[in-house]
Amino acid sequence: MGVVLLGRSPGGALVAIKLIRSEYADDASFRTRFRREVAIARRVVNRYAVPVVDADTEAAAPWLATEFVPGPALADAVADTGPLPASSVRALGAMLADALDAVHREGMVHRDVKPGNVLLAPDGPRLIDFGIARALDDTVLTATDMVVGSPGFLSPEQATGTRIGPPSDLFSLGCVLVHAATGQRPFGSGPVDALLYRTVHDEPRLDGVPGELRPLVRACLDKDPARRPDAAALRAAWAADTAHAGWLPAAVSHLIAERSARMLALPDIEATLVPAAAPDAPTAAPAPGRPPRRRMLAYLGSGAAVLATGGTTAWLIGRDGDRGTGGGGGTGRAAPAARPELRIGLQADLSGPGRATGTAHEQGIRLAVEEHNARADEPFTLALTVADDRGDPEAARSAAARLAADERITAVIGATGPDAAGAVLGAYDEAALTLLSALDGDTRHMNRVFLCARPSNAMQMYPVAQYLGLHGLDDIAVVDDESEYGRQTTRFLAEGLRGTGGRTVLARTVPAGAADLDARARELAAARPGAVVHGGGAEAAAEFARALAKAGYRGPRIAGQAAHDAGFPAAAGAAADGWLVVSTATDPLAAPAARAFTRAFRTRWDGAAPPPFAAEAYDAVRLVAACVRGLGRERVTRGDLVPVLRKTRHEGVSKTYAFEPENGAFVGTGTFFYRVTGGAFRFLGPDPKAV
């Protein structure tokens, strides 16, 4: 939403000021939500809920000021000093339940109870951030299937997009108490979709929770909202443990005292100026660098991820003699000697089964590099080092080791093979080297250095759900091919269709090469589904398309991105005609935003049309360059890049790129529909209403 600043009045009172980013402030619907946020926060009066001091919802840059709490967030305290003792956890639970009871009595749900939203003070915790709380009966601003919250601390209702109420906050509170008592989350860690799945289906891990706490915590974590205690009951159960002078262990009390002392030593403050955005601002808007201490005292990073830079310190910008020709690739252009160099790596399958996509990546990247270096006003030049991994995991590990060892390389784009992508994460993570992928959407690969520059495998099916809803289709057959890709694309689609629309889902697993494929297709066709969605690979989709056509099914047939491959219509033949395919690759020949790119590509590559994922690779280079440009430094370490990438919104020629700052999940746009017609893919665009 923006930044949180530390402010101080002439009399010395400290406040936390939430200053809204201009792109949100200019949106009328967001202003409506912000007015609601302020009204909600003013109505909640409780000693354990941070009060609103002042606000201006109509200012050019709207802001909200709340009382400043100098203590650490619960997340920081546990990370710094370890889990809390049982007595402290009981006190914490009773006081947070008191705050939630006040929220619920106002007819609201907090929706984001997590350790980062709990601040610790000597006289008790403070629950913050009612910014996404909404009135229970609010049917205008919040849809019942909207998922809001932080994975690992949200309820099964939130994970499945069903209607939520006060019991959802009690589930989240149970997760917070497990974290306070053990330092761990009750449903583990890892990719977002894995956390959501375990939250809905698995039992919580409570083995580290002290026995005296376990019964009430387990009750809070019941899958059935009706069986959870309400906030008043939890407060009453642990009422004897509410705040007293020694409610926290000495190490945490020392941490609070240390931060409080810092507030007493603050220097004088000059007024903070908020300039209007320049009319010629670039399309990428990285977060600003660290401000001078006297002008802006602090960013209060409530819930923000902290990334270690790790091993090798990395580089913008070496002034070596082989500029533009780096070992294995290069642009062939000599850069002006006065400009420093930013070196990017490409890891791709250039000679194996995925060489078509790998070559598309290389062509798009080289075009972006050459265009960048031709602009005399750029503060640095780009150079490229290419590593061919042949799509083989072992070769991929060797390629990643070579790129990671080259300290001149600041970021890598790739890999272009699904097996290769998983094989290289360890090497790049160890080197703190950013890996930006325009192709890989496997949610298992999310880590501190990996950014998926496209909707994940699960989220690429979101527009499919929209399409089915717009056409009123029910009894949906959802088919996976027993692959990990098939599992990721179909699982949440099936759960979402059941949970949000109450639709019937016929879930089937049909592995590639199944001996009884025709029989399975006949059984499915006999059920007369309203639509069939296949979430597997291109080969399995082609086999299934032929069997389904033989069974006589002629209803809507939909496939995921893996079927956006020339091999699908080639292998399926006439059976592929009419299939709708959803993909995260745009068609530069049909997309208006990519016209200039298409012309430049044809000029550079002897009249050839840009293949799928060439535009996305082109965008990846421009995204990295925009982030480095925005940092405004001559020297950029590898560790500098991921945080700014996660806070950047970039309008590319193929899609809008944006990421969740805390975990790097892709939250931009860029899913497109195609129809197979006459053995070729016809671009229909991103809007399911137009399909």
Automatic annotation (TrEMBL):
Record's protein name: ABC transporter substrate-binding protein
Signal in keyword set: yes
Pfam families hit by this protein: Peripla_BP_6, Pkinase
Annotated SUPFAM superfamilies: Periplasmic binding protein-like I, Protein kinase-like (PK-like)
Region (Disordered): 317-340
Organism lineage: Bacteria, Bacillati, Actinomycetota, Actinomycetes, Kitasatosporales
Statement: the UniProt record of this protein carries the keyword Signal: yes
InterPro entries: BCAA_transport, Kinase-like_dom_sf, Leu-bd, Peripla_BP_I, Prot_kinase_dom, Ser/Thr_kinase_AS
Domain called Protein kinase: residue spans: 1-248
Organism from which the protein derives: Streptomyces zhihengii
Coiled coil: none
Family according to the record: Belongs to the leucine-binding protein family.
Record keywords: Signal
